[in-house]
Amino acid sequence: MEKIIKPNTSIQPRVNTARAFFEIANNFSNNLEILREALSNSYDAEASEVKITFELKYGPGYIRTYMIIIKIEDNGTGMSSIPENGNECSALEAFFNLGDSNKKENQIGSKGHGTKIYYKSQKISLDSWKDRKHIYAETEDKHLWQTLTIPRLPSYHYEEVPDNTGKGTIIKIEDFISNQNTFQDVKSLRNYILWFTIVGSFEPYFNKNFKKMNLYLKSYYDSDYTKIDFGFKFPDENTDLNDSTKDFCKYIGPKTLTIPIETDKNTNVQIVGAYLGENNRDFIPSWGTGLWLCKDYIKIKHDNDLFNIIVGGERWYSNFLILANCQQFELTADRNSIKQDTIIYDKVIKAITIYLKEELKKSSTWDKFFDKKKEEREQEKQEEQRDKEQERINRLEGYIKNYKERENIKTDFPNLLIKEPRNEAETGLLLQSMVSTEHNGIDFKIGAYDTHYGTDLIIEIKKKGSSRPEWAELVFKLSLLFPSFHPTTTFEKIICWEIGDDFEKTIKEIDGYLPVLVKKVDGRYNLIIGKDTMEVYVLKEILYDKE
Prior knowledge:
Blueprint: H1 17-26, H2 33-44, E1 49-58, E2 66-74, H3 91-96, E3 123-130, E4 133-139, H4 144-149, E5 156-162, E6 168-174, H5 186-196, E7 214-218, E8 226-228, E9 249-262, E10 265-276, E11 290-295, E12 298-302, H6 304-310, E13 320-325, H7 343-362, H8 364-405, H9 424-436, E14 444-449, E15 457-463, E16 466-477, E17 493-498, H10 503-506, E18 516-521, E19 524-529, E20 532-538, H11 539-544
Parallel strand pairs: 1-7, 11-13, 16-17, 17-20
Antiparallel strand pairs: 1-2, 2-6, 3-4, 3-6, 4-5, 7-8, 9-10, 10-13, 11-12, 14-15, 15-16, 18-19, 19-20
């Protein structure tokens, strides 16, 4: 019987929890984001030190493939298996669950999505110590990611025992699904960490009592850990413009703006930045200059279109780094972007724009810096032009020097080309010179020269009192003819400077026949390919009368 749904009956939409779990875990576009999430969680757990280790181990089976093992250790407050502070679930449950978070208002993230990137692996396990207890938890599925792709929700179990010997949390992620190169270079990992994680926080510019957390990092092939100190730092201020702008650094802020959102509600924006000479931009990635919108003092959205509006359309952003933090910015689920369709966002952007315009307008240093910058650019253009001219002169002088060192043509014909040719064009010049001086080794005249037709020359052969045109191919060395041999129907004569020592090595079968070179007289040969015969003129032998 067909089921009839009564009017006004409440129906709740069904959620495919396994597929939703998979989509959230798969939504992390950059696998380095596992560092961002791990460090944020350790920081919120009040850790003062974190160690992250990357290892490579052979995977199981006959195919010897490497597995990436990631180990995260901190000395924070640890996890409990019991809900605390009025939360509906425990910290341990929030770690494995999707959408549950025990984060406080002033902590990083609150959607319960961050650690889901860990599920892009074979197995997750953790040890955590809190309240004189030790928890060991691990996932139960044979391969987590394969389970989620079915899709099916994976499971985990844990054990809890009394233990007062440990502190903090150790998380191990086995066979993390990523390119092996992603985690092998500590330098590139350090750049990401200082730019996109809490370790690169610029909170110290606004809060003297900031919480510090140092990081120790070790990649696959390192013998020891690399220490990465906490906190983002601008270069020391230097406003001396007497010599150049290269070492210049002038701070903007730090400044906290209070922005009214509603009648009884405000929000704050913290702004700090600098305009910088070339020598003071080494700490910024090549794509990183300009304006960054931030949350939790972590850089989120790069907005140089807005910065161009602030400075009047000029592309000056490469001289600046400005960081603007607002804790009321709403982030997307993967924390990679800021939601722009909110009242808070619009008001914050307006406040940032007004502040920076006024700050730059009232600063005489700004005008001095950019006047000096324009002067330097003009000098650079002049120096670049001088360098190009000198390069051109050096190139011509080198050409003359090279010309003088070349072998002269040894011949009794004084009006011929002076130097032995080194390419096809010079071979053509010599041929024209020999035709003009009526050298007796050349029995034709040049009618036309054009490389666009696949055959270089039309020559005029005079026989029995009349002339007839023939096709001729021009090459520097005969051996150069074969790598790109034209059909035998497209030429009847071949003119070259020399045969080439590599002739025997370069010949190849053409239409099923191996070319054969037969000498007729000095400097004249027949190249025989099957039933076709082409006459070859070797100018070097014609000139030198070699036997």
